[in-house]
Structure formats: structure tokens, C-alpha cells
Specification:
The structure is a homodimer of 300-residue chains.
Chain A lengths: L1 E7 L13 E6 L2 E7 L3 H7 L7 E5 L11 H10 L6 E5 L2 H12 L8 E5 L4 E5 L3 E9 L3 E9 L5 E2 L1 H6 L7 H5 L4 E2 L5 E2 L1 H4 E2 L6 E4 L8 H6 L4 E5 L7 H6 L5 H11 L3 E5 L9 H10 L3 E3 L5 E3 L1
Parallel strand pairs in A: 3-4, 4-5, 5-6, 14-15, 15-16, 16-17
Antiparallel strand pairs in A: 1-2, 1-18, 2-3, 7-8, 8-9, 9-14, 10-13, 11-12
Helix pairs in contact in A: 9-10
Chain lengths: 300, 300
């Protein structure tokens, strides 16, 4: 399972009940937080997300609408008694800021906080079942995109064949990952008897805040779903470029050139009260586009 | 006019749609912000407060639930094109934090930001019509209370007598502050002919986060309205003391000893879903108590 839940889809100024950027990535049993604008902890509560299951937070860049909610989220996690480690991947200066904020509050977090400064493109988290990599995008300040990839997709369990071999449904999750089942009598039920190979692992790429730049295409090439920012409609391309942001048409062009399966767009400027035109314009270039709407989960 | 609008009334963890601490003080044409927990800029938008009229922000202490929303508020003010100066009164380390956050974002605010570190008790802002002073309260870290006082109260205009002397209602605001009116014919209408002396200026004191400490009594003695924290109900006095907070009964005792006219209570722990019991318990000690409820304006 790979899915993206939008917690905030607006650009710098909160407006029209749209919040600054944050996304929750669900990859099987793991939850990852991607950017953390002001109020993210309230959005997490609103959408009943189990914050204790978030162990990795990725921050694309140090403009406030992408990280001002981080310190509140981690101090609240501390107040709630979290003990398991938290890993933060972000531009280096964030570490000093967090340290200073904890120091002046005389706060000792009850959990280990591991800070991983982003330094070069490549894989930053690797696990048996997934990997996360980062790549540069092109904004006014240092800014990173992230790619989430299932290393191997789970196998498909055949409930009928599993029942024939008396494999209990409680073991299905382990079957998905290739394990054989051993019956009470000690007989082996080979995994391939009761499962089928799946298609390859799913992938999601997040391009953060960026000017239109085709260097991004290679990094997101062929992903199942791409999030690309569209701060402005296409008539404001000049403004977008000046501010190192993108328009609908530009985002959709990246999606098209990269041959992704699906595009979601967000980071809408607070000058727009309604969003329909964003969808219309992006679909003209890349038909399989959806708006990134708060509270909505996009399954891949 | 002196009034207090509650923007956030909860303690450290946002819960039950209650937000971290922030209050807006309206003193005649001036707006002051008192503490600025995460999400305050959204609360300001929700309650349709004219943020451009806020020129002074007071931060009691550097626990996050009292200031994590400040950097977002001031950077948003910059994005909205604010030009007039902003004055911030806060414990000294906040200055370094704001500077660091602006620096890493490569942000230059388009307005002057004047930082006034709180150092000793006494008057910190003085104006023709009001003054603001600070006093120490007793929390786990350096923490300040604030007192807002109208220096002289406006005179009471008698509409009947003003009409008799043909003073237009557009001049009433200036009558309130003691001006004489000069008619088109050049005749003087003496202020006292059409106004009456008022009672003395109104006052409001805010005790921030504090353990029960009677040293506070002198500072808030006789104010028209006192805000005092009540993080816990009275059965949790031991926990309150351990955490340098107060119970309902303790807050009401301070109000009683100080002979204030009215008490409002807030900073409720997130362990409480409902608040009725806070009001009941405080009123047992100090009857003229109200809960500080978000979105409500308490006129003095």
C-alpha cells in the first residue's frame, strides 16, 4: 500500500481554510510526514492520523510554510510521552533552530531525535520494503524533492489456494512478503503455491517548491504518482518564474515529459479562492491530473 | 474602550478545537497581541481581526504554546506588504531565533521589526492614552505578566448638550479626550459644557503561566479585569505545583486577594474535554469569574 494524504495544499499564506504544505505518506505499515507547515499538528488531529506511527519527517526547504509546524509537532509528541526515535531529514540549519528552541524552553524530549542534514542527491532511508531518496529542485533557497519507492511489491495472496492449504488468514501479511507457511504438522506450504508475483513496487515523487526545470524530469521519470507544485495559473508564468514557482501548464509538462502515471498538483497561491481552473489547465497538458485536496487520500 | 478577545485558551497541547495561548487587546484604536501560539495567524483570520492594526506583540515566555505562531504571523505580515513598524516585547533569546529563521529563508521583512527584550519589571510602552507594564510571574522558565492601563479615561460626551451647542457627532471622539470645539463662526464650545469627567482609566492584567505565588497580588491589585491561568481543577493542586501551574481555586484566590473587579480563566489542560467545572470551582472563591472562551470578547 502506498498512499498520500494531503494535510495542507496552500502556498505561503494560509487562506480559504487551506493550510500550508504538509503531506502524509502511508507505505504499508509506515507513516512518513513530508513538510510540516504551521498548524500541521492540528491537521493531524483533525484527520485522526496516528501521530505515534510517524517515525520519519522530511523537510524540503526552510521557507516557513514548509516547516514552522515542526517544532510544535515534536514538542507535542514529547508531551504525549513518545519514546521511540524520530528521524528528521532536512537542510542543515534546521538542527540549530530546533536545538535553540528546545534549550530556551528548558525542554528535554523524552525520545531520541536524529537529525539527518540533506547534503547530496541519492538514497537517504533504506529498509527491507522501501527506500526514500532525495533530489535537488530549484527554488530561491536550497530545496529538495523526495521519492518514495517500495523496494519490492508485496505478492498477491490467493485466498482460495491459501484456504486449500489451511494457511490461516492471520499469516497472509507474511505470505505477501514471500514467507513459506509451516503447518502444525510441520509440513511446508511453499509461498508460490498460495501467492502470485505482483507488479513492481509503487513509487511517489514530491517535487516541493521549484521553478520550471527539466532537470527534475530524470528524477521523477516513470513514477506512479508525482506531486508537482502549481502556485499559479498559466497566465502568470512570468510571476511564477520570478518567484521560482510553477504554473499549471509547467507542472503538467514535467509530468508528461517524465511519463508519470498520475499527477497531483498543489501549493496554490492564496490569491485564488477557487481551484477548478488549476485542474482544467493542467489536464489540457496532462489528462490524468487531480487537485491535491486537504483531507483526501490518493492511493497509488 | 478596553477589551480582550481570546484567540487561544488551551495549554500546551491543542485539543478539542481549543488552541494554544493568544489574546488580542483592544485599547481604543490600538490592537495589541498577547502571546502567539501556533496557529494564531489562522485564528486572527477566522475572527476577522485587522492584523495590520497590530503594532505591538508581547510574549510572556518561550514555551512553544506561547510563541510558535509568532514567526508565521510576522512573515505573513511581510508577504501581505506591511510597511509600518512592529514592536515585539519578549525574553531576549527570541530575537536570535527570529533572526535565524529569517536568515535561512533569505527573507527580508518589508517593515522594521523592533525587538525589546524584557529585562526588568516596570513600564515598557507609554503613550498619551495608555501604558503597558510587565511584571515577573513564576514558571519553570523566565516568564512575564503584562498590565494594560488607560492613562486617562475618555470623558463622557452628553449627546443632548453637544447637540444644543451644535457640535457634530464626528467630533465626539475628540471631545472624549478633552478638546474644545470651535464652531464655524469661530465660537468656542468649552469641553466641560458638553462632557462629564469619567471614572479613572480601565486596566487589564495578564498573569501568563505561573505557579501560585502571592507576589503577583501587588502587581494586579485593583485591576478591572485579571486573566489568570487555571491549567488544572483543584483536585490536581499537587500536579499543578509540580509543573509550575495553578488550579481554579488558586487563580481565584489571587483575584480575591488582589481585589480585582473581574477574573477570566484559561490555559486549560488538554486532559479536560469540558470546562464547566473550571467555572464552578473558581466562582466558589471569586464569584465574578468567567471562562476565557475562544472568539469571545470581554469588554471592560
Amino acid at each position: 500500500m502506498l498512499a498520500v494524504t494531503i494535510l495542507g495544499n496552500n502556498s505561503a499564506l494560509p487562506a480559504f481554510d487551506r493550510h500550508p504544505t504538509s503531506q502524509l505518506i502511508t507505505m504499508d505499515e509506515h507513516l512518513f510526514l513530508l513538510d510540516c507547515g504551521e498548524g500541521t499538528q492540528m491537521q493531524i488531529a483533525k484527520y485522526k492520523i496516528r501521530r505515534s506511527k510517524i517515525n520519519h519527517i522530511f523537510i524540503s526547504h526552510l521557507h516557513g510554510d514548509h516547516y514552522f509546524g515542526l517544532i510544535g509537532l515534536i514538542t507535542s509528541m514529547g508531551l504525549l510521552g513518545r519514546v521511540q526515535p524520530m528521524h528528521i531529514y532536512a537542510p542543515a540549519p534546521l538542527k540549530e533552530m530546533i536545538s535553540l528552541q528546545l534549550k530556551v524552553a528548558d525542554t528535554n524530549l523524552p525520545f531520541p531525535l536524529h537529525f539527518h542534514p540533506l547534503q547530496e542527491e541519492g538514497v537517504i532511508v533504506v529498509d527491507q520494503k522501501f527506500e526514500v531518496s532525495c533530489f535537488r529542485v530549484y527554488h530561491r533557497i536550497e530545496c529538495w524533492g523526495f521519492k518514495f519507492r517500495q523496494i519490492k511489491a508485496p505478492r498477491k495472496v490467493s485466498p482460495e489456494r491459501a484456504r486449500e492449504h489451511e494457511v490461516p488468514s492471520s499469516f497472509f501479511e507474511r505470505l505477501k512478503w514471500g514467507e513459506d507457511y509451516i503447518t502444525k504438522q510441520g509440513d511446508i506450504v511453499k509461498n508460490e503455491w498460495v501467492t502470485d508475483a505482483s507488479s513492481k513496487g509503487k513509487s511517489y515523487a514530491y517535487s516541493a517548491d521549484t521553478i520550471y526545470d527539466e532537470r527534475i524530469v530524470d528524477h521523477v521519470s516513470g513514477v506512479d504518482m508525482l506531486y508537482h507544485e502549481t502556485t499559479y495559473l498559466k497566465d502568470l508564468e512570468e510571476r511564477a518564474t520570478k518567484r521560482f514557482h510553477c504554473t499549471t501548464a509547467q507542472a503538467a509538462t514535467i509530468a508528461k515529459k517524465a511519463g508519470v502515471k498520475k499527477l497531483i498538483i498543489g501549493h496554490f497561491s492564496s490569491k485564488y479562492e477557487t481551484l477548478d481552473q488549476f485542474e482544467t489547465e493542467a489536464k489540457e497538458v496532462f489528462p490524468n491530473t487531480e487537485l491535491a485536496l486537504e483531507g483526501v487520500t490518493y492511493r497509488i
